[in-house]
Specification:
Blueprint lengths: L1 H23 L2 E5 L7 E2 L5 E3 L1 H13 L3 E5 L2 H10 L3 E7 L8 E17 L18 E4 L3 H9 L7 E4 L2 H9 L5 E5 L3 H8 L6 E18 L4 H16 L2 H7 L15
Parallel strand pairs: 1-4, 1-5, 7-8, 7-9
Antiparallel strand pairs: 2-3, 5-10, 6-9, 6-10
Helix pairs in contact: 2-7
Amino acid sequence: MRRFFLLIIFGLFFIPYSFAETENNEVRFITEGFAPYQIVDNSGHLVGGFSYALIKSLTERVAIQAKFEVMPWARAYKTVLSEPNTFLFSVIRSRKREGRFLWVGKIKQVHFHFYGLADLTPIDPSKPESLFLHTVAAVRGSIELEFLKQMGFRAGKNLIVTENYDAAWRMLKINRAQLVYGDEFEVESVANLFGVSTDQLSIKHTLNQSLDLYLVANRNSSRVLVKKMQDEFSQLIREGVIDELITSPELWLAKSKPRAKN
């Protein structure tokens, strides 16, 4: 009986203390440059983006000291896997990733297609094998890269692996790749990056794949903090904040100079 009460007392002190630590210290929110979700300037700082605006609003509601950091996706992913009380956005939810994180809230559903420049002939749907005659670019550690490898694309043959999304899309511009497996929502940002109209980027093939983007936390994070974040995230959804952000890009477009084109 004495042991039982000691466990209860320990639990009462331990759980709030974990959250108290986060209240008195900065909580790390890690991401990558990925317009229009996270817009990064020339110095590598977040200056706008749909997901950034949403997460920033969330942290203000929860009243924590948030520290936003930008790093290459593979390193960002690995960091949040290993460090408690760290958060990562924007993360595609998949069966393989399900048990690796605590899932805080759904940011947006995304719809993927194979995109190429306007002068590339679309893939004949009756001959899907011809897709493998083209080279595709994808980001290291990304769900797109994982999916392309499962399809049968191979690095050094018809797959180029880059460190970020800007670099992947630039493979089209310099003709090192003919295709990028990308999300509809990012096409306008890519066109701006290239300095061309959206007509210059078009769908060349589609598998009609739709996936969900999330904010996630390290599995060993304070459950009190994560629950508070989940509750506030649900409240944002109920209030229509996410829908408003989707339809009102002026609320999250970068006001600082965006990353230079090259």
